Amino acid sequence: MPELPEVETTRRGIAPWLEGQRVARLITRVPALRWPIPAGLPGRLAGAEVLAVARRAKYLLLRTDRGTALVHLGMSGSLRVLHQPRPPGKHDHFDLVTAAGVVIRFNDPRRFGALLWTEADPATHPLLASLGPEPLDSGFDTAWLWAHCRGRKVAIKPHIMNAHIVVGVGNIYASEALFRAGIRPARAAGRLGEQRLAGLVNSIREVLSDAIRAGGTTLRDYSQGDGQPGYFMQDLRVYERAGKPCVVCATPVKQQVLGQRSSYYCPRCQR
Predict the structure, then answer these.
(1) In b/e form, how buried is each residue of 219-252, taking b as 16+ CB within 10 angstroms?
(2) pLDDT tens track for 86-130
(3) Contacts of 81 (CB under 8 A, 6+ apart)
(4) How far is CA 247 from CA 71, 143, 174, in A?
(5) Is residue 75 packed enough to be buried (19+ CB in 10 Å), middle (13-18) or exposed (0-12)?
(6) Who contacts 110 (Cβ-Cβ below 8 Å, separation ≥6)?
């Protein structure tokens, strides 16, 4: 499933081809993805100027002079930049065509993605209004995490995956950040002191920044906007490495299930 680094990589890949461009047309091939595509959206977008391509959590925000299109990649979605005409495939559900002739094509085999629309401030949209801070922004710091961990019995891994606490820390990156911070995934959030939480904040920022620089992580469905794979998979230290030696101490990596998600950790390096 595309996580924050993959979505940010996609944003950076499509932004140069959309920002400052006018939409010639939106071609939709299905009436709904995870939710219905708003009726009349092709008409609203035709002729609109794309002012910016932004991101909030895992949502891409295509800001135009008429409103904002919200795009979510779902479980297996991707956006491709096409410079030459190409017949759509079975899972190519919509095309955004610019006046310059560039096509941004959305492919989603599982159809868990989304294409939505708002003419209000997107920050007030029901899907975005209650989200926590961005992990790479100043609003996510030690004081914030400390305040939201105190007295909590929930395990720290699902806690940092809670989008109301901080957005975009998915399963892969939560495991990797906790390894870098030396914290076991099952440790109760409320039992972590301020100093260890400061280390975790830094590790979350580091692992997400490293993943963005590497173009994301390709495990099953994800690849970048130009069709190239993400390369952070080569830098994974614990995720899906159960039974393999820890890259630091050679102790076999362990796996456990927390919040119905597989978690990976080193029993010696993490406590």
Answers:
(1) eebbbbbeeeebebbeebbbbebeeeebeeeeee
(2) 999 999 999 999 999 999 999 999 999 999 999 999 999 999 999
(3) 13, 14, 17, 102, 103, 104, 225, 226
(4) 37, 31, 17
(5) middle
(6) 74, 75, 76, 77
Q: Residues 102, 17: contact at Cβ < 8 Å?
A: yes
3 catalytic per annotation: yes
Nearest one of 149, 158, 132 to 189, comparing CA atoms: 149
Q: Which of 12, 34, 66, 261 is catalytic?
A: 261
Q: What are phi and psi of 80, to 5 degrees?
A: -120, 140
Residue among 11, 44, 55, 58 flagged as catalytic: 58
State pLDDT tens for residues 60-79: 999 999 999 999 999 889 99
3-state SS class at 49: strand
Tell me if residue 2 is catalytic: yes
Between CA 217 and CA 12, with CA 206 as vertex, the angle to 5 degrees is: 55
Q: Is 126 annotated as catalytic?
A: no
| Selection from 220, 238, 245 nearest residue 230 by Cα | 220
Instruction: Using a pLDDT cut of 90, give the percent of the chain over it.
Output: 85
**Coil, helix or strand for 241?**
coil
Q: Could you give the domains of the chain?
A: 4-124 (3.20.190.10), 142-265 (1.10.8.50)
Active site residue 176: no
Each residue's pLDDT tens digit, 44-64: 999 999 999 999 999 999 999
Nearest to 17 by CA among 62, 56, 69, 59: 62
